[in-house]
């Protein structure tokens, strides 16, 4: 048996959908830089402390692994899925080119623009909740609200017509699959999406609107069509599955101890801090962020050589007692809350203002429209989605 065969397998399993694996706390206290085996069979160095994860994610020398690196593969698949596709390589990952691309997109994610989106997001949420209520309880909150809403929002931002929303949802689902779809199906979805976006971009050049894509095509320094298509795919993938799952997990956390829901009903001004605390306490966040170390670096007294793949577990770091008082408890009033749910540094999640806006608006609308909302199954019956880069629940049965 080789040494790699004896390494712990990561990600770790947990008995409960909303609870962290026991290994996180053990590693933080005893072995903050742990050698683990990924699903692919490759070896990586797992970081679980807040300071260490923040240090590596913020270090401009290190970026997410690129095809030229001899990095550990996260997934056990031939091509590594959408994250390793040709389309994913179009968006620059390093240096000034990456910063320029981020600046072009980031201009859209301002507080002013996010506030302008709030009424539209609230209206979408109300429509989806009304449809769920019409069908009667119990209902699956993930299928009824959590999953469709972020696609609608991304479609709205990209100026996509309402009648194409379902098609967008299908493409997102297929491209993010790790186990549910074949490589051929994923490739087909990517090609179909690319063709659609190409035609959509051409249309926006002729008739620009008030959406993000129109802003990008009319920019004085416009991106190439390939980069625009890749950006559209990136926004759909990054903004759909992650937010859809987080809406579902946030509501599950708040309903698993209903005194939390009651606290929000009594004081809706807690919505913002409650959202941040749900992001921090998410025990089912997925595998984390990989960084390829191009030179030697010391972390928590351990020297990691060049060529190491560092797997940064933001979810484990977010429960670090050194960084958060009473870290394993959900404190709806916690402030400040320096969690790492969106990463850190040059590659921190670009869409975090949008994700925060969606989570806050959904929670506000649910509290207003369905104050009697509760879980329709015991919390121990909630099940995790397995085999996805992004962690989530299979479903969230609720009644009201």
UniProtKB/TrEMBL annotation:
Keywords: Heme, Iron, Metal-binding, Monooxygenase, Oxidoreductase. Gene3D superfamilies: Cytochrome P450. Pfam families: p450. One of its GO terms (molecular function) is heme binding. Its cofactor is heme. It comes from the Bacteria. Belongs to the cytochrome P450 family. This is Cytochrome P450.
């Amino acid at each position: 048996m080789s040494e790699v065969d004896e390494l712990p397998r990561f990600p770790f399993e947990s008995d409960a959908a909303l609870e962290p694996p026991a290994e996180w706390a053990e590693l933080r206290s005893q072995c903050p830089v742990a050698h683990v085996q990924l699903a692919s069979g490759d070896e990586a160095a797992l970081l679980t402390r807040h300071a260490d994860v923040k240090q590596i994610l913020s270090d401009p020398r290190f970026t997410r692994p690129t095809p030229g690196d001899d990095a550990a593969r996260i997934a056990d698949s031939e091509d590594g899925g959408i994250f390793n596709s040709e389309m994913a390589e179009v968006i620059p990952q390093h240096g000034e080119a990456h910063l320029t691309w981020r600046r072009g997109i980031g201009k859209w994610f301002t507080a002013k623009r996010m506030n302008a989106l709030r009424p539209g997001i609230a209206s979408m949420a109300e429509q989806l909740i009304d449809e769920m209520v019409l069908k009667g309880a119990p209902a699956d909150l993930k299928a009824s609200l959590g999953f469709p809403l972020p696609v609608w929002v991304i479609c709205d931002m990209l100026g996509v017509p309402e009648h194409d929303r379902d098609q967008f949802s299908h493409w997102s689902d297929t491209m993010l699959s790790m186990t549910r779809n074949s490589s051929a199906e994923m490739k087909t979805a990517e090609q179909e999406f690319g063709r659609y976006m190409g035609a959509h971009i051409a249309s926006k050049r002729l008739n620009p609107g008030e959406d993000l894509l129109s802003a990008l095509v009319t920019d004085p320094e416009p991106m190439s069509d390939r980069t625009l298509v890749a950006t559209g795919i990136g926004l759909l993938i990054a903004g759909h599955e992650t937010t859809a799952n987080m809406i579902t997990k946030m509501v599950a956390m708040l309903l698993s101890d209903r005194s939390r829901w009651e606290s929000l009903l009594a004081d809706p001004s807690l919505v913002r801090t409650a959202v941040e605390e749900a992001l921090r306490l998410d025990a089912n966040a997925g595998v984390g962020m990989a960084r390829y170390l191009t030179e030697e670096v010391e972390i928590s007294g351990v020297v990691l050589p060049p060529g190491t793949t560092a797997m940064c577990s933001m979810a484990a770091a977010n429960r670090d007692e050194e960084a958060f008082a009473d870290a394993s408890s959900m404190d709806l009033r916690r402030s400040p809350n320096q969690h790492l749910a969106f990463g850190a540094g040059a590659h921190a999640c670009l869409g975090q203002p949008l994700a925060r806006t969606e989570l806050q608006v959904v929670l506000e609308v649910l509290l207003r429209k369905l104050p009697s909302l509760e879980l329709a199954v015991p919390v121990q019956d909630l099940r995790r989605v397995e085999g996805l880069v992004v962690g989530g629940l299979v479903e969230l049965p609720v009644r009201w």
